[in-house]
Amino acid sequence: MKRKSSSSPEPISRKLAKVGDYCYETPTCMPNGDPIWPAPLSHLSTAREFLKECASSQEKTLIVPDKDADGLSSGVIIHRTLVKLGLNPKHLDVHLVQKGSNIHEEYERKLMLATRPKFVIVLDQGSRKGPPVLDDGEARSLIIDHHLSDEFPENALVVSACHYPPVATTALTTYEICKELHPDIAVECGYLCAIGTHGDLGNTLKWLPPFPDMTETFKKYTKKLINDCVSYINAPRRTGTYDVITAWKALLDAKDPKEIMSNQRLALARQEINEEVERKTHTPPKFSKDGKVAVLNISSQAQVHPVIATRWASHLKAKSLEIVMVANHGYLPGKVNFSCRIARCARGRDPPVNIIESLKAVANLDTTDLVQRLGENFARGHKEASGGIINAAEFEELCLLMKVGEKPDKPEGTKKKVEKSPQKNTLSNYFKKS
């Protein structure tokens, strides 16, 4: 089998089947036919009560959003909602996790605890089993998320959209919660919902039911403007300096998307990332022996591996290809940060490609203790977009298990074709003519 692997992505064939819009996924419904979306109504109601109690308490409140457009947008929606409900802004604080870190790391937990909050709202951070968000029995925590998980920190109130298709982003779930708490939120935070949602689901989303009707938002702000804002907000956290605070302040201070686009620090960050993506994106892929995984190895202090994975997944095509993996060996010392995306040519297959299950299946091929050594930061995220942060040695073991770079076995019974000479004027032909 010959695989396509040029030094840069090639345009995908127009003959590929069109992928249905994200909103076409059939929602889970209650007995009366109403969709359970974006999460069970009881969970949404509990979250609203939590936010109302938080605002009325006038106590220290810590918002802990993820670093991307979805997480930061949901954080600003929460911030504005609490202020609308009467919470004095002086009681509001934000905690942004450090480069390559997460809220479960001990040093992050200590930093959050040091602010002495009574209420903690964790947004889009990914969920796993663990101790309470804070080591403070009096602190109450709310988690809003959409990453695939059935386990969460102890004692937390949880609103997770991960089991209720079409799965809403965290910003969208937060918007659905908060717009019922104050009449201004639907109008003033609609563009934030759009930025966060487009940040995770892409710029071709149709916004069909059960997604909310965003007609008025897109009348005021074009989808191009929203998508440009996504690029601006995502850029600082991708830079080597990991300047997430600039993106947070830009979103928090801006009254509309046009103000975001006038931020020069965001513009410079986007330019830096665009240039780095262009430098690193031409790395040729190597394939696993079965042809299902294409692996690209890069080294960059910038978080460009997810962008490059998305780009190659949209263009690279091969009969057996399912997953594109981009591994960044330069983002964190001694670690490999990798991002996986489903190849466009593999979308719509039956059964559907599940990156998390595929990664775990590879790890389980090992007969020693690799699964334990990979730890909790392996195969996190979504079925369609996953990745991890693991030691360089363990990543090499994964590649060996996938047999990356090895040629596929030839099918049994196939004989090597003998190429015929294209030459016509052979000696035998010459003597026949004479």
TrEMBL record:
Gene3D superfamilies: 3.90.1640.30
Superkingdom of origin: Eukaryota
Domain DDH: 60-196
Residue stretches of biased makeup (Basic and acidic residues): 406-422
Polar residues bias: start-end ranges: 423-434
Residue segments, region Disordered: 406-434
Pfam families: DHH (PF01368)
Protein name per Swiss-Prot or TrEMBL: DHH phosphoesterase
Organism whose genome encodes this protein: Glarea lozoyensis (strain ATCC 20868 / MF5171)
Native organism taxonomy: Eukaryota, Fungi, Dikarya, Ascomycota, Pezizomycotina
